[in-house]
Design brief:
The structure is a single chain. Helix content is 36%, strand content 2%. By secondary structure, it is mainly alpha-helical. The chain folds into 3 domains: 40 residues, no CATH class; 49 residues, no CATH class; 37 residues, no CATH class. Strands 1-2 form a two-stranded antiparallel ribbon. The longest helix is centred in the middle third of the chain and has 14 residues. The radius of gyration is 39 Å and the shape is elongated.
Length: 166
């Protein structure tokens, strides 16, 4: 006969003790064991309950269940995969249109204006006219902020700053 757990008895108000004792006495041993297991404080501080091995021995509370394939395996088939899994996967194979593959969003980027004749003319002359408009009407055109500004032709700064050959 399983006794009322001491911590459960301590949590009961003294005015209700007789009622709880008579209720406890009315339970079968299986029901008492179930209530005692549910009242176990270790369930609040440990993530896993003790698991039984093949011989029926329970491991300790600190033992982590066996993991196979990087997933913790439940001791039972909680999802019922054995029952509905084959039919579901067969459905997936027969109806691929219901399960679209990942389709990334296609994006268009403005790489640069240097390949357009209007931009090349600005770079060759070393100056961006005040009325310059991007040939592709891009809001992020790198020459727009330079309208009306004199540019240094590519390489001329390097030549002026380089030391004379010795």
């Amino acid at each position: 006969m399983i006794e009322l757990p001491a911590d459960l008895a301590a949590a009961i108000p003294s005015t209700s003790e007789l009622v709880v004792r008579s209720w406890w006495d009315s339970l079968s041993d299986v029901e008492r064991l179930k209530v005692a297991d549910l009242w176990d404080d270790r369930l609040e501080v440990h993530f896993f309950q003790p698991q039984a091995d093949e011989a029926g021995r329970l491991d300790d509370w600190e033992q982590v269940p066996t993991a196979r394939g990087g997933r913790f395996l439940a001791s039972d088939d909680a999802w019922g995969l054995a029952e509905w899994g084959p039919g579901y996967f067969e459905y997936m194979l027969e109806h691929p249109e219901s399960f679209p593959i990942f389709d990334p969003t296609s994006r268009t980027f403005h790489i640069g204006c240097t390949q357009h004749s209007a931009a090349r003319a600005c770079l060759e002359s070393g100056r961006v006219p005040k009325d310059f408009e991007c040939p592709v009407a891009s809001a992020s055109c790198p020459l727009r902020p330079l309208r009306g500004i004199r540019l240094i032709p590519p390489g001329s700064e390097r030549l002026a700053a380089s030391p004379p050959p010795s």
